[in-house]
Amino acid sequence: MEKAKPLVLIVDDNPTNIDLLVNTLKMDYRLGIAKNGPTALDYAEKHMPDLILLDIMMPGMNGYEVCTRLKAATKTKDIPVIFITAMSEGGHKTRGFEVGALDYITKPFHAAEVKARVKTHLSLKKARDQEIYIASKIQKTLLLGRPPQNIRGIQIAHLTVASQRVDGDFYDFFKHSNQCFDIVVGDVMGKGIPAALLGAALKSHFLRVLNELSLSTHTDKPLEPAQIVSSVHTHMIDQLVDLETFVTLCYARFDMAKYLFSFVDCGHMRTIHFHDDTNRCVLLQGINMPLGFPEKEPFRQTAVHFKPGDLFVFYSDGLTESRDRDGNFYGEKRLVDFVQRNANIEPKNLITGIWNDIIAFSESETFDDDVTCVLVKIDIQDSREVFTEEDQLNIMSDLKELGRVRSFIRAFCAGIDVSLLDEKRLGMIELAATEVTANIIKHSYKERAGKPIQVNAKMWPDEVVFEFFDWGEGFDPESAPPPVFDGSRDDGFGLHIIAHTVDEVIYSREDQGKNCACLKIKLIGGN
C-alpha cells in the first residue's frame, strides 16, 4: 500500500496567502487549512500534521501564542513550525525562535524557497523520527525485561508507554528457582535518551550484582533484596551524584513456597496489594530514600504474607500524574478504586482496562511522563498441593545426633521471615524437636543404638510441620504421667515442654509398627 504524503497545516487569515501556499504545495503534500489560532490548535491536536506553516499577525490569537501553546502540549510539541510572515525585523525572528519555531520565511515569498524549506524540515523530521524509532526498539530490549517462565501459580502483565518514545522507566525480573523470583520497577528522574541510558545501566548493575554476590557467597540461597539494592547503590552513587539525578525504585521478591513478599522501596510509588479474601487494597510503602541520595542508614526491607487470589500492582508516577483537560491528576485513589473493582479479571485484561481508564480520564493517549504498570497475580489454587517445601533427615538412635536435629530444624526454617517466625519461637521449636528425638531414643528404642529415626520437614504458606518417625515401641501420650513440679519426680517434663512449645502435637502409630510424632507450628500472619 502506498504511504500517505506528509500532512502540512497552513495557518493564515489571508485568503490570498492561503491560495498561494496551496498552489505551491498541493502536488507534493496533503494540506490542512486554519484561518485563526484556535482552529489551528484544534486541527493540530486532532490530525497531528507533519509540519505547520504559521502566520504571525492574525486577529485574536497571534502566531507567537499559537506556537507557544503547540510547544507546551505533550501531543503537539514535536511538530515542526515554520513562521511565514511579512514581519521581517530581526526582533520578530528572534521571538519566533524563542517560542519554538524552527524556521522563518518572510513575505512576499518565492514558491521555490517555500518548497525547499518545507522539504528540508520534513526530511529532518523523518530522520529524527527514524532515529527515535530505532532507539525505542533498543530501549525495549535494554529497559523492559521479560517475565520469568515456569513459575508456578503466577500471572504477570506489563505495560510501558513512553512520553518521548524513549524514557527512563524500567523493569526487570530475576528468577532464582521455579518458586522464587525478584522484580525491580524503577523510574529515572528525567526523560529521553539520557534517562533511558541510565536506566539501562542500573538494570545492568542489578544483574551484575546478583551474579557477583551469588558467586562470592557460595550458596544456592538468594541474597536478601536489601543486600542487593545496597550493593547496586554503592556501585552507582558516584555516577548519580555527578549527573545530579536520582532513581526511585521498588525491588521485590515473590517466594511462592512461603507465600512471602519481601520488598525494598526507595521513594517509589506505593505498591498496591489487593487481598482476595477481604476484597480490599493495601498500599505498601518503605522508608528508604531514592538511589542517588547519600545512604545514611542501611536499606530497610519489609515482608508481608500473601494468599491465593491476591494481586500486586507496581506503577510509575506517570500513571497517577496523568492529567485531564482541567489539569486534575488521575491519582492514586482512582487507580486503587479501579483495581479493587476489577482485580478478579485476567491480568492482561486488567492492565488494558487501566490503560483505557487513563485515556478516558485524560482524553488523550499522549502524556507528559512515562506510564509504566506491572501486575503480578497469584493464582487461586490449593497452595498445599502446589507450594510446599520439603526436606528430610535420617539419623540413628544416638543422643550425640541431637545436635544434627537442631541444625536441621534451624536450616529448614532459615528462609522464613522474622515477622512470621522470630528467633525466640525458632529456639522453642528446636527444643521441642530435641525432646521428641530424645524420647524416641530413650523410650521407643529403650536406648538401643543404631536404630533408624527419620525426620520429615514440610513448609506451607501458613505453617511448618516436622514429623519424627521410628519403628520402636508404641507410645500412648494419655498413659504418660503428668509432670510434678515439687521435685518429687523428674519424669514427664519432656512431653510438657513439647506440648507448650509448638501449636499442635499429634502422636500416631501405623499398623506396620511405624510411630509418628508430628509437630505443627503456625506461621504468624499465615492463611
List the helices and strands and how they pair.
Layout: E1 7-11, H1 15-25, E2 30-34, H2 37-47, E3 51-54, H3 63-72, E4 81-85, H4 90-98, E5 103-106, H5 111-143, E6 154-161, E7 169-177, E8 180-188, H6 192-217, H7 225-242, E9 247-255, E10 260-266, E11 271-275, E12 280-284, E13 302-305, E14 311-315, H8 317-320, H9 332-342, H10 347-362, E15 371-378, H11 383-386, E16 389-396, H12 402-412, H13 423-444, E17 452-459, E18 463-470, H14 493-501, E19 504-509, E20 515-522
Parallel strand pairs: 1-2, 1-3, 3-4, 4-5
Antiparallel strand pairs: 6-15, 7-8, 8-9, 9-10, 10-13, 11-12, 11-14, 14-15, 16-17, 17-18, 18-20, 19-20
Helix pairs in contact: 1-5, 2-3, 5-6, 6-7, 12-13, 13-14
Descriptive account of the structure:
With 527 residues, the protein is of the alpha+beta class. It contains 14 helices and 20 strands. It has helices spanning 15-25, 37-47, 63-72, 90-98, 111-143, 192-217, 225-242, 317-320, 332-342, 347-362, 383-386, 402-412, 423-444, 493-501; strands at 7-11, 30-34, 51-54, 81-85, 103-106, 154-161, 169-177, 180-188, 247-255, 260-266, 271-275, 280-284, 302-305, 311-315, 371-378, 389-396, 452-459, 463-470, 504-509, 515-522. The strands form 4 sheets. It has a 5-stranded parallel beta sheet, with helices on both faces. Helix 5 (111-143) packs parallel to helix 6 and helix 12 runs antiparallel to helix 13. It starts with 6 loop residues before the first strand and ends in a 5-residue tail after the last strand. Mean pLDDT is 85; it is low at 382-386 and 484-490.
